[in-house]
Specification:
Layout: H1 2-26, E1 31-42, E2 45-56, E3 60-64, H2 71-77, E4 88-96, E5 99-100, H3 108-114, E6 115-118, H4 129-139, H5 145-158, H6 162-165, H7 178-190, E7 196-200, H8 208-221, E8 226-230, H9 234-240, E9 243-248, E10 251-257, H10 258-263, H11 268-274
Parallel strand pairs: 3-8, 3-9, 6-7, 7-8
Antiparallel strand pairs: 1-2, 1-4, 4-5, 9-10
Bound molecules: adenosine-5'-triphosphate and magnesium ion (MG).
Magnesium ion is lined by residues 71-72, 200.
């Protein structure tokens, strides 16, 4: 009798957790990116397996999982960066505001503008700070010098870099520190007015102080942008993300509210990973 009651309680708890997870994954129209049965192969290597995942607007979603599980590959699908890789085959859909990025009529150039990417290693262009900032807008046909200057100032401010560089805009971007270079890359991504920022381990090559600055910046950015961040740093995922997706061997194992994932993971694999038992 006692056993039955406790088993029922356990069952109810599991059902409730599943409901919460489903609610998060199904709720509302504030979904900016949705993958539907997304599969990807590099030649014979089946790297993404039936990924169904929804990313919410103005939220930070962290993607975690051991090396090689497909995190970078997944976010590269969101701006079609895998297209250039020979032997890469993709099936399923990636809906961006409801439209399939892989539709044959999709405007790849426009979508890339709306979905910016920040990489692990800061990659400023080997040119001046100001030229880094005006490069994107110029490609998108902004020509007026005053407008270009304004865009540069606004985005450098948003990336909390303006005060550190406003008196050296003509200097090479390569003369900045690693942390400053990464904030410049974020400012540069913002200069073409994206909706989403994809970040692939954006602080992996930075020291703790630069990392903290970037984390604070990401938290600020979510008021206007949607951020999807891949990280190996569990504390970072727990500190800054609203939702967390855990991947393992190309599969989405668990997705949910970050607090739930870290405090009450539903899957044993998730628990093992976040407690450092593997990976
Ligand atoms: N350009 C490529 N060509 C062929 N195979 C690739 C390519 N990029 C990744 N892969 C393979 O796809 C799988 C997933 O790689 P991916 O880089 O997405 O993993 P990851 O989760 O980002 O790992 P890490 O945490 O180490 O960055 C791996 O087996 C990898 O070898
Ligand atoms: Mg990666």
């Amino acid at each position: 009798m006692v056993l039955n009651t406790s088993r029922n309680k356990e069952k109810n708890e599991i059902e409730e957790k599943n409901n919460i997870s489903q609610k998060i994954n199904n709720s509302g129209d504030d979904i900016v990116i949705e993958t539907v049965k997304l599969n990807l192969w590099y030649d014979d290597n089946h790297v993404l397996k039936d990924i169904n995942l929804k990313f919410k607007k103005n939220k930070i979603t962290a993607i975690i999982g051991p090396s090689g599980c497909g995190k970078s590959t997944l976010i590269r699908c969101f701006n079609r960066m895998n297209d250039v890789i020979e032997g890469c085959k993709i099936e399923g859909k990636v809906l961006f505001n409801g439209e399939n990025l892989y539709d044959k009529n999709a405007d790849v150039r426009l979508n890339r503008k709306k979905i910016g990417m920040i990489f692990q290693k800061p990659n400023p262009f080997p040119m001046s700070i100001i030229d880094n900032m005006t490069y994107g807008p110029k490609i998108h046909k902004v020509e007026d010098p005053k407008t270009l200057e304004k865009i540069a100032e606004k985005c450098l401010n948003r990336a909390v870099l303006w005060d550190e560089v406003n008196d050296r805009l003509e200097e090479s971007a390569m003369s900045l520190s690693g942390g400053q270079q990464q904030r410049l890359c974020i400012a540069r991504a913002l200069s073409v007015e994206p909706e989403i920022l994809l970040m692939d381990e954006p602080t992996a090559s930075l020291d703790p102080i630069a990392t903290q600055k970037i984390e604070e910046l990401i938290l600020e950015l979510k008021h206007e942008w949607t951020v999807i961040i891949v990280t190996h740093n569990m504390q970072q995922a727990a500190r800054i993300s609203d939702y967390t997706a855990f991947m393992y061997l190309g599969e989405l194992i668990e997705y949910g509210d970050t607090t739930q994932i870290f405090e009450k993971p539903q899957q044993k694999l998730t628990e093992n990973y976040i407690t450092g038992r593997f990976g």
